[in-house]
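Predict structure. Chain length: 334.
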Amino acid sequence: MTAASLAETAKAIVADGKGILAADESFPTIKKRFDPLGIESTEDNRRSYREMLFRAPEAEKYISGVILFDETIRQKAADGTSLVELLESRGIIPGIKVDGGAKPLAGHPDETVTEGLDGLRARLEDYAGLGARFTKWRAVYRIDEEIPTAACLSANAHALARYAALAQDAGLVPIVEPEVLMDGEHDIDICDMVTEEVLRGVYAELAIQDVELEGTLLKPNMVLSGKDCAEQASVQEVAERTVRCLKRAVPAAVPGIVFLSGGQSDEQATEHLNAMNKLGESLPWKLSFSYGRALQAAPLKAWAGKTENVGAAQQAYLDRAKANGEAALGRYAA
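Prediction complete.
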């Protein structure tokens, strides 16, 4: 795929009023979501749940792409259609998570580095053959008194850049996801400083690896107060600080920024995105969403593993998708 084709796909993912459903939960993560509702995490139940979301009527009005898990990209729907074909038939772009997860960083026991570069070239070729058109790799940074360290910043930035270069070689748009976790007592000033430092390091490495930024997307955290901070920033302050941080660190060549929800409530994630788009600033990139729990919590609870609840669950999903689609335009009203 040419650089122009990659750029075209990236722009399509951040089309006006649309964003991404992150349905790439690993086996342990989706089990954690299913267990409180008494749903057994079997292959059939996982397929049924995701197929239900993918078939939700009119979701394509607000969902441009779906990030899949390795199991899901290989699965077939109940009628024998592959889940990838199901998405494509609705004009939704299939993507795939390709990282191997965050592992302890050698010499830095309180920090992690995301692994998965070994064998990645072959896996990317396989996923492209299965119909994927974009990919995702997540790096994680925790804030504490002396972390993240320079070692953590450097190791994760390099891995993100190598992944992005390999993805583009395979004809796939890389979503670069450096997530500064909101866990902790730090205030919004600390989050702002760390997020900017992380983003600057990532884009320096992307430049070294000659990654075509026009054919990429960024999936960052928002600039937030730590979850346990006594003073929580307002919606307006989060919006203003996040946009200012991005303007300082993200090159204009990037076509879009699709935020992760990162532990925020459904409503918080929507309100923060909406407030950013209501600032009225002239920005070089689209601001949209790539949400997992913030799109799925309501429909999963409504479904509870029961066939008779499919309609209600699909409506709950559509409501969340529509709310975030409106937020991506700055038109959401609670």
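Summary: The beta strands are 19-22, 63-68, 93-97, 102-105, 108-114, 134-141, 173-180, 217-218, 256-259, 286-291.
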